[in-house]
Amino acid sequence: MSVTPAVAAPATRRRARLPQSVAFTAVAVIFVLFMAASSVPSPLYVVYQQEWGFSSMTLTVVFAVYVLGLIASLLVVGALSDHVGRRPVLAAAIIGEAVSLVLFLVAGDVSALFAARVVQGVATGAAMSVLGATLVDLNPAHAPSRAGVISSIAPTSGLALGALGCGALVQFAPAPTHLVYVLLLAGMVVALALVAGLPETSARRPGALASLAPRLGVPARLRPDLVALLPILLSSWSLGGLYLSLGPSVAAGIFGLTNHLVGGFVVTLLCATGALTSLVLRSAPVGAVLQTGAALLAAGMGITLAGVLTDTVALAAAGTLVSGVGFGAAALASFGTLARLAAPGERGELFSVVYVIAYLAFSVPAVIAGFAATAAGLRPTAIVYGFAVGGLAVLAVIAQSVRAARR
């Protein structure tokens, strides 16, 4: 009599788990939700600045503390899911994100905004590596490149949706600094329910506590591929950092576009174009996509700079579109390459390393630009930043050409 419940219980648990295809989709949706939440404060920075009267330098520091929290989280818990499983780490990250959204809801000054962004950064960092690794774990056998495609599309599409959606709410809806966080909180509740139904894809193994020691480790066999990707990772993510930290301010301060929806659309124009590009090019050869992406990043930055120098909105928008294509191509090829090369036990730590590199490129130049904008002005800062991104993109073209020749 006692055997029947013991046998039935595992069967019930198995029935409660989502099928692999549904689980893969659920993880992709959670990925998009996290990235949307991370970009939501961008259109609100101008509102907070007007309400609380802080400088552009303070705004940049608020942006920076988010990234510092994210990188610290990647360094500490990036490999944890390889030891304790994907689901516990992802559930903890969702709860942390919910806490940050509550802090945003009750924020009444800059110090509260700082706290909310730090917590959000830690939660997002914990989520990103485990989400990327889980997508690879659940990747359908008949479509081996799908996880790499989703890993490139989810961040860019999430950033686009968050910025545009928040910009629309700020411009047209009541309680602009509150409603968006209520909606995101509801999304996190749904995400937690989805995680409860996910199958566990990473077997428990010893070393969980040791894995919390901050480190960056890449297996020797993967290092040449990662080094070859560095220039394009640096150029594409530093471009993204410029748009998310200073994009709405550039639209308002240089082009006089003060509409909050337009401020969000600046970010969306880059990120949505990148997401669409990743989708369209998902079956293209990786080497060609990398070189094309690097070339378009350089060309798009040049066109955008021409628009800034001549105060031509249409030219700057066209440059953003071209850069967006390069941004999406770079993300697709970079994450697609690593997703195919990494073994299951390497994925959590490898994705952590890649995201640390990406977010350092995303944050450090943007922070420098924020201080420079306060000291020297927005226009010269945007011009110098643009030339730097374009130079990195040219280096990326050279690096991929050298790598292809060696192969």
Short description:
The chain is mainly α and 407 residues long. The protein has helices spanning 3-16, 20-39, 41-52, 56-77, 81-84, 86-106, 110-137, 146-172, 179-196, 208-211, 223-253, 260-280, 286-310, 313-341, 347-376, 378-406.
Helix content: over 70%
Element string (H = helix, E = strand): HHHHHHHHHHHHHHHH
| Class derived from helix and strand content | mainly alpha
Distance between the termini: 64 Å
How many alpha or pi helices?
16
Rg: 21 Å
Biggest β-sheet description: none
Mean pLDDT: 82
Protein architecture, described:
This protein is mainly alpha-helical and 407 residues long. The chain has helices at 3-16, 20-39, 41-52, 56-77, 81-84, 86-106, 110-137, 146-172, 179-196, 208-211, 223-253, 260-280, 286-310, 313-341, 347-376, 378-406. The longest helix is centred in the middle third of the chain and has 31 residues, at 223-253.
Essential attributes:
single chain, 407 residues, mainly alpha, 16 helices, 82% helix, 0% strand, globular
How are the SSEs placed, and which strands pair?
Elements: H1 3-16, H2 20-39, H3 41-52, H4 56-77, H5 81-84, H6 86-106, H7 110-137, H8 146-172, H9 179-196, H10 208-211, H11 223-253, H12 260-280, H13 286-310, H14 313-341, H15 347-376, H16 378-406
Helix pairs in contact: 2-7, 2-8, 2-9, 3-8, 3-12, 4-7, 4-15, 6-7, 6-9, 7-8, 7-15, 8-12, 8-14, 11-12, 11-14, 11-15, 11-16, 12-14, 13-14, 13-16, 15-16
